[in-house]
Amino acid sequence: MKKILISDKLAEDGINFLNAQEGIQIHIQTGLSEDELCEIIPEFDALLIRSDTQVTAKVLKAATRLKVVGRAGIGVDNVDLNAATEQGVIVMNTPDANATTTAELAIAHMFSLSRNLPFANQSVRDGKWERSKLMGAEIAHKTLAVLGFGTIGRIVAQRGNGLGMRVIAYDPFVAPDVFAKHGAEMVDLEALVKQADYLTLHCPLLEKTKNIIGRDQLAMMKKSARLINCARGGLVDESGLYDALKEGRIAGAALDVYEQEPPKDSPLLTLDNVVFTPHLGASTKEAQVAVSVEIARQAVKYLQTGEAVNALNLPRLSAEELSKAQPFMNLANILGKVLVGLIDQPIQKLEVAVYGKAAEVKIRPISAEAMVGLLGGQLSTPVNRVNVENIAKRQGITLIESQTEESEGYQSLIKITGHCADKSVSLAGTLLGNQHPRLVSINHFEIEVVPEGALLITRHDDKPGVIAAISSILGVANINITRMQVSIADEHQLAMMVISVSDPLSEQVLKSVCEVPAVHTARQIAL
């Protein structure tokens, strides 16, 4: 008999599902303190939670029988993932169970903005009849621009198509055929912003997406455009949005999320062309039922079959397996990180090839780590070897693997190649002393690089003065060069240079490097 503890409130449908399963016994006890949870947790095989229960290292250490923690929802900030991994406990969530609810809120906001519904409602309540003042706009035949094309963005696109809208979308980590499959035209960020009648955001908040809609992007939008954010506060520069709305440079905005929640002192609250909701993205009865039923299903499946759906952490490896595979996995992860920094288009296919000693271990953990390096930090959910294959499939990425004991001049070698719609980028790496990773080639350029810290990678004309010009720019910016490698020129008289720098380059410094006449491309990668 498998025993499941439910320590936060779950919908009745989820509880009823569990009660109907053979070999499953549930116990419901909410509001437990850490000590109280530690006292009873040794009896249970699974723990189902929402956001209230704190699954600390102390709790996990006490959970001698525990196999899985299931979070009914997306966020797992209340679970110590490292401690769970150390104890061999799988942690899973339900990332897609409330996707429809959030997508529908975005569509609702689109209608609300277009027909001035909140203000019309208040006007009638105030005894007014302001029909001419509340003139609206039709949605049909307008352009719906979707920023972020994950599960929620795809549902929004489908709804937009159903409303007779033209749908365009931008997501640099989704393959082109995924856009077409869901009825959206793939465009770049600038085209998305310029063409939008309605711009709706559905991407995670990461370092690279913070203020992704800033003053520059707002300045590109049509005066008749409306912005909708039901994703994450911080994606939009609220100061810039306030100015754009106040000055009439865009027509309106609808916000469900904010830089600070609640937005008590935000100047946006003083504007009458903004619609507000209090972070209601997942707040429907159906969504609460969906996450409860889904996490119940996932927990039972894991207890009965061992299949970990939406797992967020890694199962424990034996010391022998880890010792043998870890150096190659680390190298593959690094190659994935470098690859994503060199490609500015969605990857449709990833090839992973291992040679020599690297072929003596199973290739799948190596391939998985290459994909983790590629996708990690680009999405809202944690990415690891457990979930990366499913995530890659969702992004439209096909994995191709090959291995051979031939070494190609190295004791061990790993090659990864990312194929985009109109180009491919290939990297190769090896290990020195079976431990120390080295990047040995980028496309056809042979160049040995220590892949760590901040790297500046350039392609430039092979002629005197280029290296000096770049070095001068870095010197003026007080950035020290710790290592520098330059390849032999190719048949086009182009060389490649990789510079390890003491500090990351600012946007302005990187722009100055790109403006050196002989420089064709310059990219910065943080490892």
From TrEMBL:
SUPFAM superfamilies in the record: ACT-like (SSF55021), Formate/glycerate dehydrogenase catalytic domain-like (SSF52283), NAD(P)-binding Rossmann-fold domains (SSF51735), Serine metabolism enzymes domain (SSF143548)
Enzyme class: oxidoreductase
Coiled coil: none
UniProt EC number: 1.1.1.95
ACT domain boundaries: 455-527
Any one GO molecular-function label of the UniProt entry: phosphoglycerate dehydrogenase activity
Annotated catalysed reactions: (R)-2-hydroxyglutarate + NAD(+) = 2-oxoglutarate + NADH + H(+); (2R)-3-phosphoglycerate + NAD(+) = 3-phosphooxypyruvate + NADH + H(+)
Domain of life: Bacteria
The keyword DNA-binding is assigned to this record: no
InterPro entries found in the cross-reference section: ACT-like_dom_sf (IPR045865), ACT_dom (IPR002912), AHAS_small-like_ACT (IPR054480), ASB_dom_sf (IPR029009), D-2-hydroxyacid_DH (IPR050857), D-isomer_2_OHA_DH_cat_dom (IPR006139), D-isomer_DH_CS (IPR029753), D-isomer_DH_NAD-bd (IPR006140)
Keywords: Amino-acid biosynthesis, NAD, Oxidoreductase, Serine biosynthesis
Pathway where this protein functions: Amino-acid biosynthesis; L-serine biosynthesis; L-serine from 3-phospho-D-glycerate: step 1/3
Record has Manganese as a keyword: no
Biological function: Catalyzes the reversible oxidation of 3-phospho-D-glycerate to 3-phosphonooxypyruvate, the first step of the phosphorylated L-serine biosynthesis pathway. Also catalyzes the reversible oxidation of 2-hydroxyglutarate to 2-oxoglutarate.
Similarity comment: Belongs to the D-isomer specific 2-hydroxyacid dehydrogenase family.
Name of the molecule in the record: D-3-phosphoglycerate dehydrogenase
Organism for this UniProt entry: Methylomonas fluvii
